[in-house]
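Section 5: illustrative case.
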Protein backbone atom coordinates (compact mmCIF):
# COMPACT_ATOMS: atom_id res chain seq x y z
CA UNK A 1 0.00 0.00 0.00
CA UNK A 2 1.27 3.47 -0.86
CA UNK A 3 1.55 5.56 2.28
CA UNK A 4 0.03 9.03 2.19
CA UNK A 5 2.28 11.87 3.32
CA UNK A 6 1.01 14.84 5.33
CA UNK A 7 3.35 17.83 5.54
CA UNK A 8 3.25 21.10 7.50
CA UNK A 9 2.47 24.60 6.29
CA UNK A 10 5.23 27.11 7.06
CA UNK A 11 4.47 30.80 6.61
CA UNK A 12 7.68 31.48 4.73
CA UNK A 13 7.64 33.12 1.31
CA UNK A 14 8.05 30.61 -1.50
CA UNK A 15 7.96 27.55 0.75
CA UNK A 16 4.63 26.11 -0.42
CA UNK A 17 5.41 26.66 -4.09
CA UNK A 18 8.76 24.87 -3.74
CA UNK A 19 7.23 21.91 -1.94
CA UNK A 20 4.34 21.49 -4.38
CA UNK A 21 6.50 21.96 -7.46
CA UNK A 22 9.04 19.36 -6.31
CA UNK A 23 6.92 16.83 -4.45
CA UNK A 24 3.25 17.63 -5.11
CA UNK A 25 2.54 14.32 -6.85
CA UNK A 26 3.86 12.42 -3.82
CA UNK A 27 1.98 14.30 -1.09
CA UNK A 28 -1.54 13.66 0.16
CA UNK A 29 -2.21 16.67 2.36
CA UNK A 30 -0.94 19.82 4.00
CA UNK A 31 -1.87 20.72 7.57
CA UNK A 32 -2.13 24.17 9.14
CA UNK A 33 -3.95 25.79 12.06
CA UNK A 34 -6.68 28.36 12.45
CA UNK A 35 -5.53 31.91 13.20
CA UNK A 36 -4.47 31.98 16.84
CA UNK A 37 -7.23 34.38 17.87
CA UNK A 38 -9.71 31.56 17.13
CA UNK A 39 -8.00 28.46 18.52
CA UNK A 40 -4.76 27.07 19.82
CA UNK A 41 -2.67 24.30 18.30
CA UNK A 42 0.18 21.94 19.06
CA UNK A 43 3.05 24.36 18.39
CA UNK A 44 4.20 27.59 20.05
CA UNK A 45 3.64 29.58 16.85
CA UNK A 46 1.22 32.51 16.95
CA UNK A 47 -0.60 32.93 13.63
CA UNK A 48 -2.20 36.13 12.45
CA UNK A 49 -4.46 35.93 9.39
CA UNK A 50 -3.74 33.03 7.04
CA UNK A 51 -4.33 33.16 3.29
CA UNK A 52 -6.42 30.01 3.12
CA UNK A 53 -7.90 30.71 -0.31
CA UNK A 54 -4.48 30.88 -1.98
CA UNK A 55 -3.21 27.84 -0.10
CA UNK A 56 -6.29 25.78 -0.98
CA UNK A 57 -6.14 26.79 -4.64
CA UNK A 58 -2.45 25.89 -4.97
CA UNK A 59 -2.99 22.55 -3.27
CA UNK A 60 -6.00 21.70 -5.43
CA UNK A 61 -3.84 22.08 -8.53
CA UNK A 62 -1.72 19.19 -7.22
CA UNK A 63 -4.65 17.23 -5.73
CA UNK A 64 -3.25 17.82 -2.26
CA UNK A 65 -5.87 17.91 0.50
CA UNK A 66 -5.99 20.53 3.25
CA UNK A 67 -6.23 19.64 6.96
CA UNK A 68 -7.03 22.29 9.58
CA UNK A 69 -5.69 21.87 13.12
CA UNK A 70 -7.66 22.58 16.28
CA UNK A 71 -5.45 20.42 18.44
CA UNK A 72 -4.19 22.22 21.51
CA UNK A 73 -4.22 19.90 24.51
CA UNK A 74 -5.68 22.70 26.63
CA UNK A 75 -7.34 26.03 25.86
CA UNK A 76 -8.77 26.86 29.25
CA UNK A 77 -12.51 27.40 29.62
CA UNK A 78 -13.21 29.34 26.42
CA UNK A 79 -14.16 26.33 24.20
CA UNK A 80 -16.88 25.37 26.70
CA UNK A 81 -18.76 28.63 26.23
CA UNK A 82 -21.49 29.15 23.57
CA UNK A 83 -19.77 32.28 22.26
CA UNK A 84 -16.65 30.31 21.29
CA UNK A 85 -18.46 28.18 18.75
CA UNK A 86 -20.62 31.09 17.62
CA UNK A 87 -17.38 32.85 16.70
CA UNK A 88 -15.50 29.90 15.22
CA UNK A 89 -18.30 28.24 13.20
CA UNK A 90 -18.60 30.91 10.46
CA UNK A 91 -14.88 30.57 9.71
CA UNK A 92 -15.10 26.78 9.61
CA UNK A 93 -18.13 26.94 7.31
CA UNK A 94 -16.20 29.19 4.91
CA UNK A 95 -13.30 26.76 4.92
CA UNK A 96 -15.45 23.73 4.13
CA UNK A 97 -17.07 25.71 1.32
CA UNK A 98 -13.62 26.59 -0.02
CA UNK A 99 -12.64 22.94 -0.12
CA UNK A 100 -10.89 22.10 3.16
CA UNK A 101 -11.15 18.32 3.58
CA UNK A 102 -10.28 17.53 7.18
CA UNK A 103 -10.09 18.99 10.68
CA UNK A 104 -7.70 17.45 13.21
CA UNK A 105 -8.80 17.74 16.83
CA UNK A 106 -7.39 16.63 20.16
CA UNK A 107 -10.54 17.14 22.25
CA UNK A 108 -13.13 14.41 21.52
CA UNK A 109 -15.95 16.79 22.43
CA UNK A 110 -15.20 18.70 19.21
CA UNK A 111 -15.73 15.73 16.90
CA UNK A 112 -19.48 15.90 16.35
CA UNK A 113 -19.56 19.72 16.39
CA UNK A 114 -17.15 19.80 13.47
CA UNK A 115 -18.58 16.85 11.55
CA UNK A 116 -21.95 18.63 11.45
CA UNK A 117 -20.29 21.36 9.39
CA UNK A 118 -19.35 18.88 6.67
CA UNK A 119 -15.73 18.06 7.51
CA UNK A 120 -14.04 14.74 8.02
CA UNK A 121 -12.37 14.62 11.43
CA UNK A 122 -9.03 13.17 12.46
CA UNK A 123 -7.95 12.57 16.05
CA UNK A 124 -4.67 14.31 16.82
CA UNK A 125 -1.51 12.59 18.00
CA UNK A 126 -2.01 14.80 21.07
CA UNK A 127 -5.07 12.67 21.93
CA UNK A 128 -2.55 9.94 22.89
CA UNK A 129 -4.46 7.06 21.28
CA UNK A 130 -2.27 4.13 22.29
CA UNK A 131 -4.60 1.15 22.80
CA UNK A 132 -7.32 -0.76 21.00
CA UNK A 133 -9.90 0.40 23.54
CA UNK A 134 -9.06 4.08 23.12
CA UNK A 135 -9.03 3.81 19.33
CA UNK A 136 -12.47 2.18 19.45
CA UNK A 137 -13.79 5.00 21.61
CA UNK A 138 -12.65 7.65 19.14
CA UNK A 139 -14.13 5.67 16.26
CA UNK A 140 -17.46 5.39 18.09
CA UNK A 141 -17.35 9.15 18.65
CA UNK A 142 -17.13 9.62 14.89
CA UNK A 143 -13.56 10.15 13.71
CA UNK A 144 -12.64 9.28 10.14
CA UNK A 145 -8.92 8.99 10.85
CA UNK A 146 -6.56 8.67 13.81
CA UNK A 147 -3.02 9.93 14.31
CA UNK A 148 -1.79 7.28 16.72
CA UNK A 149 0.28 8.13 19.79
CA UNK A 150 3.84 8.27 18.53
CA UNK A 151 5.03 6.31 21.60
CA UNK A 152 3.63 3.12 20.01
CA UNK A 153 5.30 3.68 16.63
CA UNK A 154 7.60 0.70 17.09
CA UNK A 155 4.99 -1.68 18.46
CA UNK A 156 3.85 -3.18 15.18
CA UNK A 157 1.77 -5.87 16.85
CA UNK A 158 -0.29 -3.28 18.73
CA UNK A 159 -0.73 -1.16 15.61
CA UNK A 160 -1.98 -4.26 13.77
CA UNK A 161 -4.47 -4.94 16.58
CA UNK A 162 -5.77 -1.39 16.31
CA UNK A 163 -5.94 -1.76 12.51
CA UNK A 164 -8.15 -4.83 12.91
CA UNK A 165 -10.37 -3.17 15.52
CA UNK A 166 -11.31 0.13 13.84
CA UNK A 167 -12.56 0.93 10.38
CA UNK A 168 -10.85 4.26 9.85
CA UNK A 169 -7.55 5.58 8.55
CA UNK A 170 -4.48 5.25 10.78
CA UNK A 171 -1.56 7.68 10.54
CA UNK A 172 1.80 7.89 12.31
CA UNK A 173 3.88 10.92 13.28
CA UNK A 174 7.37 9.94 12.13
CA UNK A 175 9.91 12.59 13.14
CA UNK A 176 9.03 14.50 16.28
CA UNK A 177 11.99 13.21 18.30
CA UNK A 178 10.57 13.69 21.82
CA UNK A 179 11.67 11.37 24.62
CA UNK A 180 9.92 8.02 24.77
CA UNK A 181 7.27 8.04 27.52
CA UNK A 182 8.38 11.54 28.50
CA UNK A 183 7.08 12.38 32.00
CA UNK A 184 6.63 16.01 31.00
CA UNK A 185 4.82 15.47 27.69
CA UNK A 186 1.29 16.17 28.93
CA UNK A 187 2.34 19.34 30.75
CA UNK A 188 4.52 20.51 27.88
CA UNK A 189 1.60 20.11 25.47
CA UNK A 190 -0.59 22.17 27.81
CA UNK A 191 1.98 24.95 27.92
CA UNK A 192 2.29 24.92 24.13
CA UNK A 193 -1.48 25.05 23.70
CA UNK A 194 -1.76 28.15 25.86
CA UNK A 195 1.30 29.86 24.35
CA UNK A 196 -0.08 29.34 20.85
CA UNK A 197 -2.85 31.82 21.74
CA UNK A 198 -0.48 34.50 23.07
CA UNK A 199 1.38 36.90 20.74
CA UNK A 200 5.18 36.66 21.21
CA UNK A 201 5.45 40.23 22.50
CA UNK A 202 3.08 39.33 25.38
CA UNK A 203 5.04 36.29 26.58
CA UNK A 204 7.72 38.15 28.52
CA UNK A 205 6.69 36.84 31.96
CA UNK A 206 6.26 33.24 30.84
CA UNK A 207 9.09 30.71 31.01
CA UNK A 208 8.47 28.99 27.68
CA UNK A 209 11.51 26.73 27.66
CA UNK A 210 11.80 24.61 30.82
CA UNK A 211 10.65 21.35 29.25
CA UNK A 212 12.72 21.75 26.08
CA UNK A 213 15.82 22.58 28.11
CA UNK A 214 15.31 19.55 30.33
CA UNK A 215 14.88 17.18 27.40
CA UNK A 216 17.98 18.55 25.66
CA UNK A 217 20.04 17.95 28.81
CA UNK A 218 18.72 14.38 29.05
CA UNK A 219 19.52 13.59 25.41
CA UNK A 220 23.02 15.00 25.78
CA UNK A 221 23.69 13.10 29.02
CA UNK A 222 22.02 9.86 27.92
CA UNK A 223 22.33 9.77 24.11
CA UNK A 224 20.68 6.36 23.94
CA UNK A 225 17.42 8.21 24.66
CA UNK A 226 17.66 9.64 21.14
CA UNK A 227 17.50 6.10 19.73
CA UNK A 228 14.64 5.16 22.06
CA UNK A 229 12.61 8.10 20.77
CA UNK A 230 9.95 6.59 18.48
CA UNK A 231 10.91 8.25 15.21
CA UNK A 232 10.70 6.22 12.01
CA UNK A 233 13.46 6.60 9.42
CA UNK A 234 12.48 7.12 5.77
CA UNK A 235 14.11 3.78 4.90
CA UNK A 236 11.98 1.92 7.46
CA UNK A 237 8.56 2.97 6.17
CA UNK A 238 8.39 -0.39 4.38
CA UNK A 239 7.48 -2.06 7.67
CA UNK A 240 4.31 0.02 7.96
CA UNK A 241 2.87 -0.17 4.45
CA UNK A 242 0.27 -2.84 5.20
CA UNK A 243 -0.90 -1.58 8.59
CA UNK A 244 -1.27 2.22 8.35
CA UNK A 245 -2.58 4.61 5.73
CA UNK A 246 -0.11 7.45 5.98
CA UNK A 247 2.57 9.39 7.80
CA UNK A 248 2.59 12.87 9.21
CA UNK A 249 5.83 14.86 9.04
CA UNK A 250 6.30 17.26 11.95
CA UNK A 251 7.97 20.65 11.63
CA UNK A 252 5.74 23.75 11.51
CA UNK A 253 8.35 25.54 13.62
CA UNK A 254 11.32 24.70 11.37
CA UNK A 255 12.88 26.74 8.59
CA UNK A 256 11.44 26.05 5.16
CA UNK A 257 14.80 24.87 3.83
CA UNK A 258 15.11 22.25 6.57
CA UNK A 259 11.51 21.14 6.05
CA UNK A 260 12.06 20.63 2.32
CA UNK A 261 15.09 18.43 3.12
CA UNK A 262 12.93 16.34 5.46
CA UNK A 263 10.05 16.00 2.99
CA UNK A 264 12.46 14.92 0.26
CA UNK A 265 13.92 12.23 2.52
CA UNK A 266 10.51 10.73 3.28
CA UNK A 267 9.32 10.96 -0.32
CA UNK A 268 12.46 9.17 -1.54
CA UNK A 269 12.62 6.89 1.51
CA UNK A 270 16.31 7.52 1.62
CA UNK A 271 18.57 9.93 3.51
CA UNK A 272 22.32 10.35 3.84
CA UNK A 273 23.33 12.68 6.61
CA UNK A 274 22.67 13.44 10.26
CA UNK A 275 19.48 11.81 11.52
CA UNK A 276 19.05 14.77 13.87
CA UNK A 277 18.38 17.00 10.86
CA UNK A 278 15.26 14.96 10.07
CA UNK A 279 13.82 15.55 13.54
CA UNK A 280 11.52 18.34 14.58
CA UNK A 281 13.24 18.25 17.97
CA UNK A 282 16.94 18.99 17.47
CA UNK A 283 19.82 18.00 19.72
CA UNK A 284 22.80 20.34 19.20
CA UNK A 285 26.21 18.72 19.29
CA UNK A 286 25.03 15.24 18.29
CA UNK A 287 25.74 13.50 14.99
CA UNK A 288 24.13 10.22 13.93
CA UNK A 289 24.87 9.07 10.40
CA UNK A 290 21.47 7.85 9.24
CA UNK A 291 22.85 4.98 7.17
CA UNK A 292 24.58 3.54 10.24
CA UNK A 293 21.09 2.84 11.59
CA UNK A 294 20.40 0.23 8.92
CA UNK A 295 19.19 -2.80 10.86
CA UNK A 296 18.47 -0.87 14.07
CA UNK A 297 14.69 -1.00 13.78
CA UNK A 298 14.66 -4.73 13.10
CA UNK A 299 15.96 -5.29 16.63
CA UNK A 300 13.55 -2.77 18.08
CA UNK A 301 10.22 -3.78 16.56
CA UNK A 302 7.55 -4.78 19.08
CA UNK A 303 9.68 -3.23 21.82
CA UNK A 304 8.14 -3.80 25.26
CA UNK A 305 9.76 -0.59 26.59
CA UNK A 306 11.28 -2.39 29.58
CA UNK A 307 14.51 -0.45 29.18
CA UNK A 308 15.80 -1.38 32.64
CA UNK A 309 16.27 -4.97 31.48
CA UNK A 310 17.44 -4.25 27.93
CA UNK A 311 20.55 -2.43 26.72
CA UNK A 312 19.85 -2.69 23.00
CA UNK A 313 19.54 1.06 22.36
CA UNK A 314 22.35 1.93 24.75
CA UNK A 315 24.80 -0.43 23.05
CA UNK A 316 23.71 0.66 19.58
CA UNK A 317 24.15 4.30 20.58
CA UNK A 318 27.80 3.68 21.48
CA UNK A 319 28.43 2.61 17.88
CA UNK A 320 26.54 5.28 15.95
CA UNK A 321 26.34 8.50 18.00
CA UNK A 322 29.25 10.94 17.87
CA UNK A 323 29.93 14.44 19.11
CA UNK A 324 29.80 17.21 16.51
CA UNK A 325 29.64 20.89 17.34
CA UNK A 326 27.40 21.48 14.33
CA UNK A 327 25.23 18.39 14.82
CA UNK A 328 21.50 18.98 14.62
CA UNK A 329 21.81 22.66 13.76
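Designed sequence:
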Amino acid sequence: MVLGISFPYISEEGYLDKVLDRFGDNLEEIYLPLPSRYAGSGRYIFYEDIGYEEIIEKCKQHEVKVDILINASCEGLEPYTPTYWERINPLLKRLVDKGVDMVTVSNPLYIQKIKKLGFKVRASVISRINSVQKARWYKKLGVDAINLDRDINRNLELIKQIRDAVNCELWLLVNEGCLLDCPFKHFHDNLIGHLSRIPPNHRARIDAGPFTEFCTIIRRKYPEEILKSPWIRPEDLKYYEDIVDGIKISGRDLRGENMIEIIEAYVRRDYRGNLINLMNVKTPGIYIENKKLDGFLEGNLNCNRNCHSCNYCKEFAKRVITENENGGI
